[in-house]
Amino acid sequence: MAQSALLNASILKKVAMALSGLFLITFLALHVSLNLISVFSENVFNEASHFMGYNPLIQFVMQPVLAFGVIFHFVMGFVLTIQNKNARPIGYAKYNGAANASWTSRNMIISGLVILAFLGLHFYDFWFPEIGYKYVAGTAPDATRYYGELVHKFHDPIRTGLYCVSFILLGLHLWHGFSSSLQSMGMHNKYSRFLSKVGYGYAVVVPALFVIIALFHHFNN
Questions:
Q1: Cα(154)–Cα(162) distance, rounded to whole angstroms?
Q2: What sections of the protein cross the membrane (predicted)?
Q3: CA angle (27, 145, 59) in 5-degree steps
Q4: Which of 46, 101, 128, 180 maximizes the CB count within 10 A of its CB?
Q5: Which residues contact 218 (CB under 8 A, 6 or more apart)?
């Protein structure tokens, strides 16, 4: 009975982890779409960013939900990693990691930590200055400032390189994470293969777009 309860709790944790991951995937799609506008139109990017930055629903509802989703996803990832290790206290007599699982699946915790560090850099570059601008200094709204602020961050080749490496690791993380999420949610039907292909495509296209945007502003401004 107790073993069954533990199994059910483990399944619930994996489903919660999967749902939080899918939620963050949705956010990434919106985020890259907004950033991609900056490649084509400075004015439209400024308008869209200003709307996002001063919309009460986004600022006071969606933003806290997003922050909770990020924290929950990473905490649950650590919990499940520790749980999986504790479930196999005795190591294999001979373990060939590359033969049993891909590098990505074996190092999700590493790519996750790198992404977490990247989020810290991203907050330092954009979110903290935004909070200081609007709520600490109380500066009057300026709907023309966003493009210049974005471009300025990508002048530094080291910062741009860090962003690009982080996005590549994000792609590897998503590559395994998407298929793992589908498995955790029990999606083993005629649509699962199609959804897996969509997930793999997403894991390549979205991080690649982030890299292209960063390199575009580094070399063109």
A1: 10
A2: 21-40, 60-82, 103-124, 160-178, 199-219
A3: 40
A4: 46
A5: 154, 155, 157, 160
Q: What is the DSSP string of 52-66?
A: HHH-HHIIIIIHHHH
Residue 39 Cα distances to 30, 44, 80, 101, 144, angstroms: 15, 10, 39, 38, 16
Say what the pTM is.
0.81
pLDDT, tens digit, 9 for 90 and up, residues 50-93: 999 899 998 889 888 888 888 888 888 778 778 777 766 555 45
Extended strands (E) in the chain: none
- For residue 164, give the nearest of 214, 201, 203, 110 by alpha carbon: 214
Report d(CA 21, CA 134) in Å as an integer: 30
Q: Cβ of 28: how many Cβ atoms within 10 Å? A: 17
- Residue 32, CA distances (Å) to 96, 117, 181, 202 in order: 37, 19, 21, 12
Write the burial class of residue 77 (CB in 10 Å: 0-12 exposed, 13-18 middle, 19+ buried): buried
